[in-house]
Design brief:
Blueprint: H1 5-15, H2 20-27, H3 31-38, H4 56-67, H5 71-78, H6 82-89, H7 97-107
Length: 111
């Protein structure tokens, strides 16, 4: 899956377990500018960060982001509890294969 600049920034920030404020400070920009970058707006001055290959939880996170579905909407569609989905996208559960399968077959935009 090829990431947009905003997706790459968010994946890298999540891997570092940083807040948007902390990432903005690291990059030397205002949090307002950084938030715009994560939403793929005003990207001319945004750095191109390459997170490399996504692991399955990150892949699911990006698929949900692209789908524009909320965590609650995904929970209602999949039958997975919201708390489990949150932990799955952070890589804190080991059985995300069912969620990956759902995104690839039902979720659509994750392909």
């Amino acid at each position: 899956m090829k990431l947009t600049k905003g997706e790459a920034l968010e994946v890298v920030r999540r891997r570092r377990r940083m807040t948007q404020d902390e990432m903005a400070d690291t990059l030397g920009v205002t949090v307002h500018r950084y938030r715009r970058w994560e939403h793929d707006r005003g990207l001319r001055s945004a750095p191109r960060l390459d997170p490399g290959d996504l692991d399955p939880p990150e892949w699911c996170f990006v698929a949900r982001r692209r789908s524009k579905l909320t965590m609650l909407e995904v929970a209602m569609l999949t039958g997975f509890p919201v708390g489990w989905l949150q932990r799955a996208e952070r890589g804190e559960v080991f059985c995300v294969d069912k969620l990956v399968h759902w995104w690839k077959t039902q979720g659509g935009n994750g392909k």
